[in-house]
Amino acid sequence: MTRTTGKDATTVRFGAAGAAVTVATLATNALAYVVPVLGARRLSAADLGALATVLALAAIAAVPGFGLQIAMAAHRARLGGGGEAGLALRTATYTAAATLAAAPVLSVVLRLPVTLSLLLAATTFATVLSGRWLGELQGDQRFLRLAAAMTVLAAGRYGGLVVGILAGRGPVVCLLLGTLTGLLAIPVLARLATPSLGVTPPSAPAGVTGSGRLGGRQVTTACVATLAMLTISYADLLLARQLLPAADSGAYAVGAVLTKGALWAPQVVTLLVLPRLARHDRRARVVALGLILACGAVLVTAAAIGGETAFQLAGGADYRHLAGLAPLFAATGALYAVVFMLVNDRVATVARWPALPLWVASAVLAVAATLIAPRTVTGVLSCALATAAGTALVMGWLVFRRGPLTRKGMGDHQE
What is the pLDDT of residues 176-213, one digit of tens each? Predict the structure, then answer.
């Protein structure tokens, strides 16, 4: 009878964790996709525009929540848990207060009902605060519970919206229901993050010293890095909208679907490896980078072979003539997936200015597309691809120039 080794058991556990987190990510994306699809069929054009606008604002306002999650996960993996509750509450409160203060301006500039802007502050508070428990679960490597928490959060963020749209209500009622379900998700997330009986939160690994309390600086750094990743991944799409004729801009938007698919497909790898990166596990970094590169290679190859099918699925038969550009769109997303993993590595290891290369790259992309590249889909796409490749090389050099990293062998929690 064959006996399963400890290494095999760990591989199986991480495989199960990866599958669970992948399913949770797909469920989140599906719910986010259902809202505009249902809205287009159930709401008037004016109501749909208002709801879509406030949801876009909500996505931007949620950035501190992602930053909080990354900072907390890295801190708990590196130095153990404790003392983060107050910081999480302050982060959520400050973000909601800033959103609330901007409500009158948003209402005037974007022609939104004041009630929608006020509800945006409430739903922002719930979303950002949720980053605390997601970060705890990620940092403790309790990935199965993390998958459950991601699903609960997605249901909270979008469940009320779906119910409101199906009931034929307007955007104010829909967002009110979404805010209520988001707030109701908070105690469920807190319960999921509570260690089971007999399980204690991880402490700092042997030989690691430093403050055991997470500070605002780390959270701010992670938030800025998250914003930089969001900015550079959407910069080419915004530039295409600004520089190209309407028809070409629409074509670029269809191609950008392939970019986003190649970008987000391997993100589960980054999520799983972050705690190990925080503990300076060199092998985990190399394996994660290899997996992301392999995933990107598969997606680029698939785009090259089935470009016409990819564009038809993304935008319809009218865009099949762009099939030759499909592998370039996919390659751009695949390279940004590498960049995102390396940025997370630098955040997790408390590097200085971890996202600075991304801000510089965004500026270079804007200048090149505006002043140098032809005003065509291919011209903007070429700038985006070159920027992604250059940024990946710079980030790779910054990450791997450090000396040998020796700490590894963290405990694996799959609770």
Answer: 999 999 999 999 999 998 876 555 555 555 444 445 67
Choose the most confident range, by mean pLDDT, from 112-116, 288-292, 350-354. Answer: 288-292
- Segment among 123-127, 143-147, 351-355 with least mean pLDDT: 351-355
What does pTM read for this prediction? 0.81
Question: What is the rounded distance in angstroms from the CA atom of residue 380 to the CA atom of residue 240?
Answer: 7
**Residue with token string 């998700």:** 185
Give the rounded distance of the alpha carbon of 254 from its chain centre: 20
Q: Which whole-number Å values give the CA distances from 192 to 76, 79, 198, 201, in the listed order?
A: 17, 21, 15, 13
**pLDDT band per the 50, 70, 90 thresholds, residue 9:** low
244 φ, ψ to 5°?
-100, 155
pLDDT of residue 345: 92
Q: Are 116 and 102 in contact (CB under 8 A)?
A: no
In DSSP terms, 80 is beta-bridged to 203
The one-character DSSP state at 197 is: T
Q: How many domains are contained in the chain? A: 2
Distance in angstroms (rounded) separating the CA atoms of residues 45 and 59: 21
Separation CA 397–CA 77 (nearest Å):
24
Residues 182 and 294 in one domain: no
Please tell me whether residues 276 and 339 are part of one structural domain: yes
Give the domain-ending residue among 162, 193, 224: 193
For residues 224 and 175, membership in a common domain is answered with: no
CB 257 within 8 A of CB 29: no
Structural domain contains residue 225: yes
Average pLDDT over residues 288-292: 93
Q: What is the mean pLDDT of the chain?
A: 84
SS3 content of the chain, % helix, strand, coil (to 5): 80, 0, 20
Residue 202 counted as domain residue: no
CA dist., res. 112 & res. 307, Å (int): 40
Phi, psi torsion values for 80, nearest 5 degrees: 85, 175
- Distance in angstroms (rounded) separating the CA atoms of residues 206 and 17: 26
Nearest to 276 by CA among 351, 201, 207, 345: 345
In which domain, by residue range, is 94 found? 6-193
Instruction: Give yes or no: residues 40 and 153 share one domain.
Output: yes
